[in-house]
Amino acid sequence: MADTREKLRRDKRYSEADDIRKQIFSKGYELEDTTSGPLLKKR
Question: Are 29 and 43 in contact (CB under 8 A)?
Answer without folding.
Answer: yes
